[in-house]
Amino acid sequence: MLNFDHVSYAVNEKSIFTDISASLIDHEITCLIGPNGIGKSTLFKLIIESYQPQSGTITGIPDNIALLAQQNELFEPLTVRELLTIQRDTLDTEVLELLHLTDLLDTQIDYLSGGQRQLVWLGYVLHQEPDLLLLDEPTTYLDLRYQQTFLNALTVLQRKRQFTVLMILHDLTQAYNYSDNIWLINQQQLTIGKSHDMLDETLLSKTFQLPLKIITDDEHALIIPKN
Amino acid sequence: MHKAYNGILAVALIISVGAALLLGSTHLSLTALLQGDPDALKLAINYRLPRIIVAVVGGAMIGLSGNLLQLVLRNHLVDASILGIMNGSQFLTLCLIVLIPALTHLNVVIAAICGMVLLIGWRVVIPKQRSTMQLILVGIATAMTFQSLTQLTSEGFGVPLPSLSTVTWGQTWQLLIVLVLGLMLLIIVWPQLKYFALSSEQLRLLKVPENRLLYFVLCIVGMWAGAVTGLLGVIFFLGAVLPQMSRLMAPHAKSQALFAPTALWGSLLLLNADTLARTIVAPTELPTSAVLLAISGPLFVLLLIKGGRKHA
Question: Exposed (0-12), middle (13-18) or buried (19+): which is B155, by Cβ within 10 Å?
């Protein structure tokens, strides 16, 4: 289990995190939310060991981590097949079908739409069969249909294959509906809870400095600005 | 498509080799050569043949080193000359020859080693990702500095600078040895080169040893660029332009698929530029590197204007 133990991290003496402790629950989807510039991506960099914390320790970092950013750079004109098989020889047909990539295998990735491209990158990270999948605002540039396809495919495969997901999302409604747990970062601190327990108008309004309203039914939550 | 493209370039190269063998301040006739005319054979074997081999091999090495460097630095606007490596190795080689005159006969091998050391040194000094424009400007400033130091040393100590017109068989063999050494290293690293399609961050997560691969490739590039400089002098921009020229004909090809056409374009350009330099105002010989720069300079400008938006 990925474990943060009293971790502090600062850039140029500006503190990003102060003394945070948290455990990421294995085999579940956790969403990381919080205002812009608060250090969500920095937390990812700490996990993949691009950055080292100034104090505290991060333990239980799995061997096999995959990372998907909101925009992923490709420096050669690869086809979908070439990208997915860059490290292993076999294609995962279940992933291909869920992501509607079967017919696109021999298409060059540059020619795909932004939405298709992001599904290809999801395919790429899933082909690594990660123990921990980090997703950094994966749906930011996608239209509603692709957001749905992306998140549905991710959830279906996660439930089936039981890898651990930590995902940064800006859309609070999506964050609540597609996750088991929420990590909320604000003012250098981390608040953690089960997603349905974290549906707290006051907490969210304070975090995002905007009056928010939560509308719920039995299964779903909708989080919108009050005014 | 690729086979046809490479085939056309190869045929053009064979024709160019024929032309280079026969044309010059003294025109040779094919019949004289075939009949074994001793004077014609002597001229062809002692003077023209090494020069042709150096132009063909050197051109290919410039193209390949440009292609490799662009692939591993993930930057389509650089080559060894733009980073200042060619001028640097020219200066370093010159210094070594001034200090130890016995090394003069090994100048191509020495230049190859200098190129390798300098390129690796460059990577250590500038380890982080810099913007393309910054790399180019720093590189050109470095190149200019080394160029003037080279000029001062060359004139001060009366040591002539290398040129295609003074190529010997000994130097040709040295170049071929460096070529083969580089190709052997390239074969080892070849299957791993595909990983440079991904960002450094992704490679780290895939546990691909990017730095090791990078230094390996820099050895090849430095060695080739240095050796070519030791024989031809500095040829600016050509290594950056050649991969793009081959890409024009095959826009969807990956860098690794462009190795053959890039090498062929390099050989073609260098060989024909040399033939042109030898014949255009014969019997006076023009400097081949100047003829080449007159071609590669404008092409690089085009590349900057076309690619500037994408790569800046």
Answer: exposed
Whether the CB of B290 is below 8 Å from some CB of chain A: the reply is: no
What is the CB neighbour count within 10 angstroms for residue A160?
A: 10
How does pLDDT run along chain B (312 residues), one tens digit per residue? Answer: 577 888 999 999 999 999 998 888 778 888 888 888 888 888 888 889 999 999 999 999 999 999 999 999 998 889 999 999 999 999 999 999 999 988 888 999 999 999 999 999 999 887 666 787 888 888 999 999 999 999 999 999 988 888 888 889 999 999 999 999 999 999 999 999 999 999 999 999 999 999 999 999 999 999 999 999 999 999 999 999 999 989 888 888 899 999 999 999 999 999 999 999 988 887 888 888 888 888 888 888 888 787 644 443
Chain B residues lying within 8 Å of A72, measured CB to CB: 199, 202
Architecture per CATH, domain A27-56+63-191, reads as: 3-Layer(aba) Sandwich (3.40)
Which residues make Cβ contacts (< 8 Å) with residue A97, sequence separation at least 6?
none
**Cα A201 to Cα A203: distance, rounded to the nearest angstrom:** 6
Cα distance between residue A165 and residue A25, in whole Å: 9
Phi-psi bin for B163: left (phi > 0), alpha (psi -120 to 50), beta? beta
Residue among B196, B201, B252 whose CB faces A67 most closely: B201
Helices vs strands, H then E, count in chain A: 7, 11
Amino acid at B273: A
Contact criterion met (CB < 8 Å) for B204 and A48: yes
CB-CB neighbors (< 8 A) of B197 in chain A: 74-76, 78, 82-83, 86
CA distance B245 to B306: 13
Specify the fold of B2-311.
Answer: ABC transporter involved in vitamin B12 uptake, BtuC (1.10.3470)
Q: How far apart are CA B66 and CA B306, in angstroms?
A: 18
Instruction: Tally A–B CB contacts below 8 A.
Output: 43
What is the residue type of B60? Answer: A
In this structure, the strands spanning A181-186 and A29-33 are parallel
Q: Where are the domains of chain A?
A: 27-56+63-191
For the record, the structure tokens of A126 come out as 């899933």
A211/B contact by beta carbon, under 8 A: no
Cα distance between residue B239 and residue B165, in whole Å: 21
Domain ranges within chain B, ordered by starting residue: 2-311
Cα B154 to Cα B95: distance, rounded to the nearest angstrom: 9
* Residue B216 in contact with partner chain A when CB distance is under 8 A: no
Structure tokens at A152: 């549905």
- Please answer whether residues B127 and B218 qualify as being in contact, where contact means their C-beta atoms are separated by less than 8 angstroms: no
Measured between CB atoms, does B196 come within 8 Å of chain A?
yes
